[in-house]
Amino acid sequence: MKRVTKDPDVRREELIDVAEELFLKNGYEETPVSDIVKNAQVAQGTFYYYFKSKDEILDALTDRYLNEFTGCVEKEVERDDNNAVEKMINAFKCGSRFSLGRTKLMIYLHEEENSLLHLKMERKSHVLIVPLFAKMIEQGVIEGLFHVKYPYEAALLLVGCWDSLFDVEHFFAKSVEEKKKTIEAAFCIMERVLGAKQGSFAEPFLNMEGVYET
Length: 214
Fold this sequence. Notes:
The protein is an all-alpha fold and 214 residues long. Helices cover 72% and strands 0% of the residues.
């Protein structure tokens, strides 16, 4: 078989694509490196040229997820046709779409034995996401929709709250009614922290299609 030479960045992304597909289909633990290289149609040595281990390719995959989520939120922040409430609701929709379809892998990342990887992912997400939410909060203050003295600290508090309330392993195991209660609680807390009008966030988000899917 003729060897196909590809740009290193392209080859690396292809390996991550294949790994993601197999992780979502079979589970992380049930996917050996040999399956990844077989499906990617590369030599075992090629895999280890780009990644030292299966854990490292999972780390690269979580970075991709975070960049995808951050990119979606950034687009909302930069829009000039929505107010701060609308932007934040759309940012939450980004988060919901981000998790749907990846539930199996996201639950794996939240398991106790993966606490270090989860913590690493959480810290990265805070570095990327908190400033974006702080910017939306600042806009809301200017628009008179929010009444917050410390936008960055408010964003930090809210992101931490959401991480706890929407812990993937527990949230997707809940019934529809329990999920609804969690979402309502999250937005009630959010409205109080931001000094926003009651019901500003909960009603639009709760009506979003697929918000309760597992």
